Amino acid sequence: MAKVEFLGPLGRPSIEVDISNLQELKTYFKDDKELQEWLGICAVALNDTLVCNLDIAVSSNDKISLLPPVCGG
Asked: What is the arithmetic mean of pLDDT over 3-28?
């Protein structure tokens, strides 16, 4: 199973999911209203590499990171 990390203000513990691509992850969270608001603005990293294509294959030992936008000074 792939591990999903919720970074920054998402403030959720990591979970493991059984998916074959990132598009399935989006479907996995379809009923979570709070997370849906974040998903539209989060960057996604697969094994610490930012990705833009949700059709990328996910393997059982992959790490998916959801990175919300942040401000800092």
From this structure: 94
Helix (H) or strand (E) holding 36: helix 33-39
Give tens-digit pLDDT for 16-39.
Answer: 999 999 999 988 999 999 888 888
Radius of gyration of the chain (CA): 12
In angstroms, rounded to a whole number, what is the distance separating the alpha carbons of residues 71 and 2? Answer: 29
73 band by pLDDT with thresholds 50, 70 and 90: low
Strands 63-67 and 2-6: parallel
Q: Which residues of 11-43 are buried (b: 16+ CB within 10 A; e: fewer)?
A: eeeeeeeebeebeebeeebeeeeebeebbeebe
Tell me if residue 48 falls in helix, strand or coil.
coil
